[in-house]
Amino acid sequence: MRRVLAALGTDSQNMLLTVTARFLNQNLRIVARCIEHSLGPKFKLSGADSVVSANFIGGMRIASEMLRPTVVNFLDKMLRAPDPTTRFEEVTVSEGSELVGKTLAKARIGERTGLTVVAIKRADSEHFYYNPKGDTELGPGDVLVVIGGVDQIQMLREISSSS
Length: 163
Hints:
Blueprint: E1 3-6, H1 11-24, E2 29-33, H2 40-45, E3 50-52, H3 54-67, H4 69-80, E4 87-92, H5 104-107, H6 109-113, E5 116-121, E6 128-130, E7 143-148, H7 150-160
Parallel strand pairs: 1-2, 2-3
Antiparallel strand pairs: 4-7, 5-6, 5-7
Helix pairs in contact: 3-4
């Protein structure tokens, strides 16, 4: 997959880069930096797949530090460890995977890999299903959000790929 990160000095530069990149290639994944948070929807309309506003994220972080300091500390330690042994990761279920058509219970991902499935994002939706139940059926293109070790994640990538 080809990607473009629009992180130039101004919103107008990032907007121009976003529009130009989308015009040249409809299949790019474009992530745009947006200084003025209110411009986020315009970046999306201009072709950005994702928009990141550092000022908005910084404000959310300050609020989270105040309200949920232990959760923030946990995520910081996990995400910023010099040699991370545990991480959040996403794994996509391929079309020919043995997981397609199985429920989470029958797939036995936790038993087989030691991973915890935290959420599922369906291939045809932007909605996340948090803490999915065992009767949740997996389909091609579904993205599993998991937490666990690097080796465990690699095992799931192998299971999730085409046979």
